[in-house]
Here is the input.
Amino acid sequence: MSPRSASVNEELRRRSRERFLQAAVELVGERGYEATTLGDIADRAGSARGLVSYYFPGKRQLVQSAVHRLMHRTLEEALEREPRTEDGRERMARAVDAILGLARDRTVLMRQHMAGLLQAEGFVQCPEQRRLAELLRDTLARHGSPDVDADYPMLRSLLMGAVYAMVLPNVGMPLAPLRAELFGRYRLDWDQGVPPDAEAPGGTCDTDCSRFFSTGRPSADQRHAADEPMPVDQSK
Here is the structure.
């Protein structure tokens, strides 16, 4: 068998990493952080358990990267949905609604994410987190911020604070007053974005997040060449 090319190697690694990210989002959302092991994530991803540590230093880093992926792709989808707009106020409204919507619709996952940020490891810098930051900084710039470097940490803190308030067990705040506070601060109209009493574009909350992860399976020959096991059929 001829040696596989660097591009094939890179594609196999990318797909493996994507499957781990998707599996982490699914399992932590279903079971919570403590009840999910790296072995569980590897099994759901259809990969050998030892491969997880090749891509991520540990479970906390994997879960944070996975949630940041979900956040940045949800935000990206909200900003670019039809009708597309360059209006800075509408884009800010969509950004706020995208993040608050995750706290409402994926409460367990976002609660575990917020708890993880308070651990000793702190905030994980990863490609997913950097993309989220880029989108929020661009949103601020389009909204008219005169100093994005100064305004970005405040927007991030306000969104994190709102998410934290929503996901607190038993005493979590409803979305509407938190949205009103953020909309007031950024001079947004209530009917911009997706108001709480309006149906989200495309219908109700879509619990399938697979569209956010590029996990297309390579051929059996490619997997054999990469010494990577075939994925487990989760339907059986």
Q: What stands out?
A: The chain has a mean pLDDT of 85.
